[in-house]
Design a protein that fits this description.
Helix content is about 20%, strand content about 20%. The strands form 6 sheets. The chain has a 10-stranded mixed β-sheet with strand order 15-14-13-12-16-21-23-24-25-26. A 7-stranded parallel β-sheet has the order 5-4-3-2-8-9-11, sandwiched between helices. A 3-stranded mixed β-sheet has the order 18-17-22, with no helix packed on it. By secondary structure, it is an alpha/beta fold. It is globular and about 75 Å long. Strand 8, helix 7 and strand 9 form a beta-alpha-beta unit.
Length: about 475
């Protein structure tokens, strides 16, 4: 396994010299929180910005202290990319009913969160991941508002998504503001993610670290966040560093070998790999899109970007070598390749919005004939969040490829005249690759064009399984993947 190291003796260390002549080191998370609460002047209605991505790089000790030592602190608005999991991370504060509102991009597999939201106990402001990172960065820079193309034409931009359900199932929309704390975590690898952005946004910042070192042990170039942003530092008392999606390959496996993928999924994967061009910077969704990177055409080298702050994503680690500080956007453990780099979430989405990432391949629930995409929520049933998808598909000029089964498991159409589900992006899809065919999207005319077909199928088969009309490429219709 390739490992990228720097001169920090221990990960997530912080240097005493950051704190000028006044010590900012608190005796415990409880002591730091007491001072933060005194600074705020109240114990209810606070907004806390919590760093981390999934369970990677979260301030475990400080979160636990809020639940254990400050049960009277409630009506919290928690700003965090994820909501933890049941019984861990922010999931603890959800279960204690201390959080009344979440501002997140993806809630993950938190059943408590989903139950509270759909039951009217929790207000949720789902925000595209890059927009959330930029809101934190801009807040720390004193910028009150900014414009972004992300989510244009979707329910998120139009303000129609329910923030809170009433007990009778209807929707309630309300806005509340409060003073802000930040609980960031300084770290190596992809554990950096939202932490520098959360730290800058807070009016009172508590930094939870694994080790506090003496002045001079950290080079100035190794400092990810100047001490001016930090009010208190606490050494972690609980540091489980739980891995949400442990993903490994056998110790004896060749990490360069291609996994065997047969049937329709294999057909999709092999065809998607043809979209890679040498030197491309690429972002891949989990599942089928990620598998496509194993089938690079000969002579083609690409750089894989993971929106949680990694450029140069490599293979899954070998058994026993997984590092909780190195995960991809799907929370799976990964390894960095030689020459990889890490960065904050706001930097990551700056790359995406500025179209430095030239190709995005992701899954879909529905695609319309004009290139609209829906892939993030089923209202009233599935509440996962959009994650970084809205940012990725909203980058002007980047190519967006959707890979998915042609029809749903129940046989219903997934390619339609118009999407029935809330949109991830309007008119954003360039190519649709399914197990049956390949459609190119003619955005100017709002039409699909059938450009390739799976072996053994006819155009009539495609028509029978597609919920909209489409054009067919002139001449002989090519087969997918050279079949």
């Amino acid at each position: 396994m390739l490992r990228i190291t720097n001169r920090i003796a221990q990960p997530r260390a912080i240097c005493r010299s950051l704190f000028s002549t006044v010590s900012k080191v608190a005796a415990s998370p409880k002591a730091a929180l007491e001072e933060g609460l005194a600074h705020a002047g109240r114990r209810d209605g606070l907004t806390i910005c919590v760093g981390g991505f999934g369970l990677c790089g979260i301030p475990e000790s400080t979160i636990g202290s809020i639940a254990d030592d400050f049960p009277d602190v409630g009506d919290i608005t928690a700003v965090s990319n994820n909501a933890g999991v049941d019984g861990f991370g922010l999931g603890i504060l959800l279960e204690s009913k201390q959080v009344s509102r979440m501002v997140s991009s993806y809630v993950g597999e938190n059943k408590t969160f989903e139950k509270m939201y759909l039951g009217g106990e929790l207000a949720v402001e789902l925000t595209p991941q890059g927009t959330l990172a930029e809101r934190l960065r801009a807040g720390g820079a004193g910028i009150p508002a900014f414009f972004t193309p992300t989510a244009a034409g979707t329910v998120i931009a139009e303000g129609g998504f329910p923030i809170k359900y009433k007990s009778d199932g209807s929707n309630e929309v309300e806005v509340r503001t409060g003073k802000t704390f930040a609980y960031p975590f300084f770290s190596t690898g992809t554990a950096r993610n939202f932490n520098p952005d959360a730290a800058r946004a807070g009016k009172f910042c508590i930094a939870e670290v694994e080790e506090i070192v003496e002045a001079g042990e950290l080079h100035p170039d190794e400092i990810h966040l100047p001490g001016i942003f930090v009010n208190k530092v606490v050494k972690a008392t609980h540091n489980e560093k739980r891995i949400e999606q442990l993903t490994e390959i056998p110790a004896e496996a060749d990490s360069t070998s291609k996994p065997a993928i047969s049937g329709g999924r294999g057909r999709i994967v092999r065809r998607a790999a043809k979209e890679f061009k040498d030197g491309m910077y690429v972002n891949l969704g989990i599942g089928i899109p990620t598998m496509a990177s194993n089938y690079l055409p000969e002579g083609v080298r690409i750089e894989l970007q993971s929106e949680n702050g990694l450029m140069g994503m490599g293979p899954f680690p070998k058994q026993g070598e997984a590092d909780p500080d190195w995960i991809n956007a799907g929370k799976q453990t990964v390894t960095p390749v030689l020459g990889a780099s890490t960065f904050s979430s706001s930097d990551s989405f700056g790359m995406i919005r500025s179209c430095k990432v030239g190709l995005t391949i992701l899954g879909g629930m529905e695609v319309s004939s004009s290139g609209d995409l829906a892939n993030w929520i089923i209202p009233g049933k599935m509440v996962k969040g959009m994650g970084g998808a809205m940012d990725l598909v909203g980058a002007p000029g980047a190519k967006v490829v959707v890979t998915m089964e042609h029809v749903a498991k129940n046989g219903s159409h997934k390619i339609l005249d118009s999407c029935n589900l809330p949109l991830t992006g309007k008119g954003v899809v360039d190519l649709v690759i399914t197990d049956m065919c390949v459609f190119k999207v003619d955005k100017e005319n709002g039409r699909l064009k059938l450009i390739e077909i799976a072996k053994g199928l006819t155009v009539d088969d495609i028509k029978a399984n597609t919920g909209c009309s489409f054009d067919v490429v002139e001449g002989e219709l090519p087969l997918m993947d050279g079949e």
